[in-house]
């Protein structure tokens, strides 16, 4: 597993053996401003463009930043470029407002570009992505 990016809010990892990019949000995301979120998403987009993974596992359980409708629209316009098609598994936050915002972002007008599923259990997400058992727990640690 290679670390591609790390900040106080978010990190991006790559496991080329699975053609997998991992996006992992931290609880410190509660302190993010809109520009911080945009910068993190632009970094993720650039890593995806560079490495062209087939799968993404996004750990959003600790994502505390509330994605506003304006930012959701920005993500659809700037991040979902239509050139990268991936299978995306999202491990969701227990916070209802965060869940809704994340779902709305991926179900926006360009959300169809990804085969996306939302999960609350690592094992189910791993199986859906075709990963070896325990991969997401190893990443989570």
List strands and helices in order, with pairings.
Layout lengths: L1 E5 L3 E6 L4 E6 L8 H18 L3 E5 L9 H10 L8 E5 L4 H11 L8 E5 L2 H8 L5 H6 L1
Parallel strand pairs: 3-4, 4-5, 5-6
Antiparallel strand pairs: 1-2, 2-3
Helix pairs in contact: 1-2, 2-3
Polypeptide structure, described:
With 141 residues, the chain is of the alpha/beta class. It has one domain (2-140): 2-Layer Sandwich (Transcription Regulator spoIIAA). The chain is built from 5 helices and 6 strands; from the N terminus they run E-E-E-H-E-H-E-H-E-H-H. Strands 1-2-3-4-5-6 form a 6-stranded mixed sheet, sandwiched between helices. A hairpin with a 3-residue loop joins strand 1 (2-6) and strand 2. Helix 1 runs parallel beside helix 2 and helix 2 packs parallel to helix 3 (96-106). The chain is globular, with a radius of gyration of 14 Å.
In short:
38% of the residues lie in helices and 23% in strands. With 141 residues, the chain is an alpha/beta fold.
pLDDT averaged residue by residue = 84
CATH class group: Alpha Beta
C-alpha Rg, in Å?
14 Å
Give the N-to-C terminal Cα separation: 12 Å
What descriptive keywords fit this protein?
alpha/beta; Transcription Regulator spoIIAA; 5 helices; 6 strands
């Amino acid at each position: 597993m290679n670390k591609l990016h790390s900040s106080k809010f978010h990190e991006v990892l790559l496991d080329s053996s699975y053609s997998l990019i991992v996006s992992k949000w931290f609880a410190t995301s509660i302190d993010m401003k809109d520009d911080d979120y945009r910068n993190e998403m632009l970094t993720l987009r650039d890593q995806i463009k560079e490495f062209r993974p087939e799968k993404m596992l996004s750990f959003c359980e600790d994502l505390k930043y509330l994605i506003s409708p304006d930012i959701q629209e920005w993500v659809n316009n700037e991040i979902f470029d239509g050139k990268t098609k991936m299978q995306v598994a999202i491990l969701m936050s227990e916070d209802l407002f965060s869940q809704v915002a994340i779902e709305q972002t991926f179900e926006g007008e360009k959300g169809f570009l990804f085969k996306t599923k939302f999960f609350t259990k690592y094992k189910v997400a791993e199986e859906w992505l075709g990963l070896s058992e325990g991969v997401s727990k190893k990443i989570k640690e």
